[in-house]
């Protein structure tokens, strides 16, 4: 108790004067300071070891925000600033970044549907608004494959994800069909938002949406901000999976995409939109990580 009082008021009275008044030998006080610093260093080193273990366990894809969530799951509660300091300044650990995409070149206009979202990417309930898009990936032999994914704006979960050799309306329909079959009940008054790609403006895709009571919505040409949730998902998808591994066969790629979308992204990875819960925790009301959602210190 006396040591803490001296440490707190040393600037007001001076260390020597306080030590004499309390009858404490200087060596005893300085040994106390050394022990205090040693305990702090031991705690800090333990946290740094845990950060390195988590970072390498998930292949370096975690930034400081996600790392803070995984630390809290291990009962280590730190502010974002502290985790950022440990990762970037002390351990020099940075999350994997994706390669920059080439510039957009506007093509000929297609038949389009109005933008019903107008960049309002919030849904009041599940299966109210879905977003979809395509991206490309490469196999080790240089051949290109295309992935079509649908996410639910309610919790940002992946509803369906399919990969094929051709970027066609058939792949878009297959993905949408898989998404509909994955639901216990057929969604009502569902809005499907996409870009103006020919796959989504084709006669086959339009008729399929009409047959299943789906209302189409489309973003403006060459404006990725109108479909920002899908752009964000594919950014994460490529940074955390595609740019880190090589895939020799279609089977390897399909398995990796399935594991990433339905296991890692939906059930393990914390999402900032869901208040750093996983999409499934947000969808089903699981609150086992309530203590993670404290204000940043």
Number of structural units classed as domains: 3
Name the strands of the widest sheet in spatial order.
3-2-1-4-5
| Count of helix runs | 11
Major sheet: size, sense and barrel closure? 5 strands, mixed
Terminal-residue CA separation: 27 Å
Secondary-structure-based class equals alpha/beta
Shape verdict: elongated
The CATH class name of the largest domain reads: Alpha Beta
CATH superfamily of the largest domain: Ribonuclease H-like superfamily/Ribonuclease H
What share of residues are in beta strands? 5-15%
What value does the Rg take, in angstroms?
26 Å
The run of helices and strands is HHHHHEEEHEHHEHHH
Number of strands: 5
CATH architecture of the largest domain: 2-Layer Sandwich
Helix content: 40-55%
Ranges where pLDDT stays below 50 over 5 or more residues in a row are 288-297
What's the average pLDDT? 86
CATH fold descriptor of the largest domain: Nucleotidyltransferase, domain 5
Write a compact overview of the structure shown.
By secondary structure, the chain is an alpha/beta fold. It has helices spanning 2-13, 15-22, 26-57, 64-73, 80-90, 169-181, 198-201, 203-211, 228-242, 250-268, 279-283; strands spanning 129-138, 144-152, 158-164, 191-194, 215-218. Strands 3-2-1-4-5 form a 5-stranded mixed beta sheet, with helices on both faces.
